[in-house]
Design brief:
Blueprint (H helix, E strand, L loop, with lengths): L1 H26 L21 E5 L7 E6 L2 E6 L3 E2 L2 H12 L5 E4 H6 L14 E7 L2 E10 L5 E5 L5 E6 L2 H5 L3 H4 L14 E6 L6 E7 L2 E6 L3 E3 L1 H12 L6 E2 L6 H4 L6 E7 L2 E10 L6 E6 L5 E5 L1 H4 L4 H4 L15 E5 L5 E8 L2 E7 L5 E5 L2 H12 L5 E4 L4 H6 L7 E6 L4 E8 L5 E6 L5 E5 L1 H4 L12 E4 L5 E9 L4 E7 L18 H10 E3 L2 E4 L5 E2 L7 E2 L2 E9 L6 E9 L9 E4 L4 E4 L2 H10 L9 E2 L14
Antiparallel strand pairs: 1-2, 1-6, 2-3, 3-4, 5-9, 6-7, 7-8, 8-9, 10-11, 10-15, 11-12, 12-13, 14-18, 15-16, 16-17, 17-18, 19-20, 19-24, 20-21, 21-22, 23-27, 24-25, 25-26, 26-27, 28-31, 29-30, 29-35, 30-39, 32-38, 33-34, 35-36, 36-37, 37-38
Length: 628
């Protein structure tokens, strides 16, 4: 009850104080000033024509609406700057008078419009819409404050307005005209056509397609979307310099009667055509130009337009081979000698290679994923280094080595493509190439052939053997096959390193590298899919085996651990990191990776702590050395 009474008294006090404040304010005449209405209505924005004259402009400016844009028609014809026109309307639509008085009051004081600078105004703006006309006159500055006299649209009322109005309405020609040559928007351009003059009559036409751009002339082929977009943006950023009315400069000087170029940009309902004339005398880098259907002559930088003369080459898509890796199923490789292999996808990143070995037998291997991925990456990145010919004759194709190509690459899956690789160019760093079914001949990097060998063995998985996760390495012996002595014995079952010295270029010991190699035996490349008493490296003489490595492997089973011996043969190390090896179990000879070659040399270094010991019976050199 007491709280309610307190709240009621508080409310009554607030009400009483409010009433006292209101009554005192009325007695003192303190009322909120009324905001005067705008001098002009929003209907002004519907005008179709604007004229800006008076004493200050050098010449009358005339702007006319064309659809949703404005055109500057005087003193020359050029698209108007939409930002400048918007600023003009905003300055007037928000204009309010601080003081207004009638022309009758002025005359009653023995004054006239001249006393306010309105008889010959600094600016006179005329807005027209059909038969309706709105005229504003901006006169002299007022005697007090930063104010200016304005004669309203009724012609009878003088307003005192903000003095900044004159600066806002006094638009220079450079502000009124659009600064850029083209008005079409980048994202709406669908076609670009170029016609070269000077007697050449060459034509170039580009059109958009779902995934980029395409040439329709002078040839029909893909264009580089990135390069075309960049060139188009450069053209759309071109700004104009001087503007000259029709007849101010002779056609002989401008060269626009027979222009050097005629460039047309189209998109939607818009079409912009520009004519490029002669260079401007004494102004390097500038040329005369003219927009079609506009009489005004302009000056522009000529470099972006001159560069278009080489567009059929510069803007052409150099990625002429389209490879869909996701849908690719098979890759076929063949050569002019009749060699042929087929790479077939088995899974997400699993491939198989089939072909014919040196004895003519059909072979099938699990393909090396890294090798396949490198080859596919080379095809995806394949670029035309030079466009050789767009219409070669049969004799040309024979000269390029493409009538009987040295390599044919067939890609199937989704879309089918066939790439033909011809002979090497005179310099040797490139070779000729083309796609079957297309006339165009290119030069491409010559190392592509090296990445696409037509030998099934070259694609064989580089992992020769791999131990199961549960398998353990035990004792390893290295036997010198010349005398049957044991050069080195290593116990890989213990954690004590036999040889703590690090291999050059790595912090790992030779023992650790050997252990990893035996668990996952990787080769650098294959020499042969057969194993014998010798090994041939390249075109050299056959080499005898010098060492044999016997590795005891413990294979746990459900009952008890069993063991087996994995054996590998090695020749003498030749020419730096060249070390040949072989496996009777895998029926292959091969070259070893450089890291293992260095570790192998370390393991064979003289060791006083472990002098060579004779091998057991039957483990010396000779035929017994090749028993698996």
């Amino acid at each position: 009850m007491r709280l309610r009474l307190t709240l009621i008294l508080l409310f009554l006090n607030v009400l009483a104080f409010g009433a006292i404040f209101y009554l005192e304010s009325r007695e003192n005449g303190d009322t909120a000033p009324a905001i005067p209405p705008p001098i002009l209505t929003s209907a002004l924005q519907q005008s179709d024509e604007i004229r800006i004259g008076g004493r200050l402009p050098e010449a009358e400016r005339v702007l006319r609406r064309q659809g949703n844009r404005w055109l500057l028609e005087s003193p020359y014809v050029w698209p108007a700057n939409p930002s400048a026109v918007d600023r003009l309307f905003r300055s007037l639509l928000f204009l309010r008078a601080e003081v207004s008085f009638s022309l009758g009051e002025v005359r009653a004081n023995n004054q006239d419009l001249a006393d306010y600078g309105l008889a010959d105004p600094a600016l006179q703006l005329t807005f027209r819409r059909g038969e309706e006309e709105t005229v504003l006159r901006v006169g002299a500055p007022a005697a007090v404050g930063q104010r200016t006299y304005l004669l309203g649209p009724d012609g009878e009322t003088i307003h005192v307005v903000d003095g900044d109005l004159l600066a806002a309405l006094r638009l220079e020609l450079a502000e009124l005209r659009r600064p850029r040559l083209f008005g079409i928007d980048f994202y709406t351009v669908e076609r670009m056509a170029l016609q070269l003059g000077a007697g050449t009559n060459q034509r170039m036409r580009l059109v958009t397609m779902p995934d980029g751009w395409e040439f329709e002339a002078p040839i029909q082929t893909r264009a580089s979307a990135a390069l075309v977009d960049a060139r188009l943006q450069q053209l759309l950023r071109t700004t104009v310099g001087r503007l000259s009315r029709e007849g101010e400069i002779s056609p002989t000087e401008t060269g626009l009667l027979e222009p050097r170029q005629r460039l047309t940009l189209e998109g939607g309902q818009e079409r912009d055509t520009f004519l490029l004339g002669n260079p401007v005398p004494g102004e390097p880098g500038l040329a005369y130009g003219q927009r079609e259907s506009y009489p005004t002559v302009v000056t522009v930088p000529e470099a972006p337009f001159l560069a278009l003369a080489e567009a059929p080459t510069d803007l052409r898509d150099r990625s002429f081979l389209q490879v869909d890796l996701a849908g690719l199923e098979t890759v076929g490789l063949s050569d002019r000698a009749g060699g042929e292999i087929l790479l077939q996808r088995l899974g997400e990143n699993s491939w198989e290679v089939t072909g014919v070995d040196a004895e003519g037998e059909r072979v099938r291997y699990s393909a090396d994923r890294a090798q396949v991925n490198r080859a596919l990456a080379s095809l995806v990145r394949l670029r035309a280094e030079r466009f050789v010919s767009d219409a070669p004759s049969d004799n040309d194709l024979a000269e390029y080595g493409l009538a009987d190509p040295q390599r044919t690459v067939s890609l199937e899956g989704g879309e089918t493509e066939e790439l033909l690789l011809g002979r090497f160019t005179a310099t040797g760093g490139r070779l000729y190439a083309k796609l079957a079914g297309q006339p165009f001949v290119y030069e491409v990097a010559a190392d592509l052939v090296r990445r696409l060998p037509v030998r099934a063995l070259a694609w064989r998985n580089r992992i020769l053997e791999e131990l199961p996760e549960t398998a353990r390495l035990a004792e390893v012996e290295i036997v010198d096959l010349r005398n049957g002595s044991i050069v080195r014995t290593l116990d890989l079952a213990t954690g004590v390193p036999e040889d703590p010295s690090a291999v050059a270029g790595t912090t790992r010991s030779a023992r650790e590298i050997l252990r990893d190699q035996l668990r996952r035996f990787r080769v650098s490349s294959y020499l042969s899919a057969a194993f014998g008493e010798t090994v041939r490296v390249g075109e050299g003489e056959p080499l005898p085996w010098r060492y044999r490595l016997d590795a005891t492997v413990l294979l746990p089973s459900s009952a008890e651990a069993t063991s087996e011996v994995r054996r590998y043969w090695f020749a003498e190390r030749r020419g730096g990191n060249l070390l040949a090896g072989g496996s009777a179990r895998a029926e292959a000879t091969f070259l070893l990776p450089p890291l293992f070659v260095e570790a192998w040399s370390t393991l064979l270094a003289p060791d006083r702590a472990n002098p060579p010991t004779p091998a057991g019976p039957g483990e010396g050199a000779g035929s017994a050395a090749f028993v698996p």
